[in-house]
Amino acid sequence: DSGVTQTPKHLITATGQRVTLRCSPRSGDLSVYWYQQSLDQGLQFLIQYYNGEERAKGNILERFSAQQFPDLHSELNLSSLELGDSALYFCASSPRRGAFFGQGTRLTVV
Amino acid sequence: DAKTTQPPSMDCAEGRAANLPCNHSTISGNEYVYWYRQIHSQGPQYIIHGLKNNETNEMASLIITEDRKSSTLILPHATLRDTAVYYCIVRALTQGGSEKLVFGKGMKLTVNP
Questions:
Q1: How confident is the model at residue B28 (pLDDT cuts 50, 70, 90)?
Q2: Of B43, B49, B103, which has the smallest distance from its Cβ to A103's Cβ?
Q3: Which one in A70, A97, A101, B24 has a CA-CA gap of 20 to 30 Å to A31?
């Protein structure tokens, strides 16, 4: 158990819809990272937050947005969903020692 | 951007040591070498990290060359459960937070019975 909690574990939705993925970092960790992993693809860095502020952006589409709340949990919002958005979405929180990943949310767009 | 080079795949016999190489010839003085692994569709798992000294923990050993341009992750007695994609990453630790963590393509290690 990494201590990073992601909900929901599975999500099936239709094209054009909007979903919200949630991540609770390890207690005391200020950084949250979001990643997308499509089938048989590598981990694509989307965005990083640190103590409520956006710290770095990767290959995140304009249809996607994220935020980190005062209690440090984070949400990734995906809108106008397309079939190609079907993927595993991972969240990680990062102490100075090393990042710890949640078990991911598997999103299926039908 | 990923700053490391790993072979795409490697096989190892169960019970033998697995030596996983990584090149990071452009590493900066303040960048650490991190290793993670991902077992199919699970969240990546932190293994070990180091700056310039060799490191060992309960999972593995990390050997970093003196010039820091390459490193080797050693799994001393590989088991079937070590079959995974292994990622070598260089990453700085900045004041007040960490640099973004960018994964490359990694290396698929297959441990054979």
A1: confident
A2: B43
A3: B24
Task: Name the maximum alpha-carbon separation found in chain A.
Answer: 40
User: How many CB atoms are located within 10 Å of the residue A103 CB?
Assistant: 17
Report the DSSP pairing between strands B18-23 and A19-24.
unpaired
Neighbours of A13 (CB within 10 A): 16
Tens digit of pLDDT for each residue in B52-92? Answer: 989 999 999 999 999 999 999 999 999 999 999 999 998 87
Nearest CA-CA partner of B91 in A101, A99, A35: A99
Which residue is listed with tokens 């589409």?
A61
Which residue would you say has higher pLDDT here, B98 or B44?
B44
Residue B41 pLDDT > 90: no
B-contacting residues in A 37-56 (Cβ below 8 Å): 42-43, 45, 48, 50-51, 55-56
Cα–Cα distance between B87 and B69 in angstroms, integer?
16
Q: How many interface pairs between A and B have CB atoms less than 8 angstroms apart? A: 64
Token readout for B59 is 């999972």
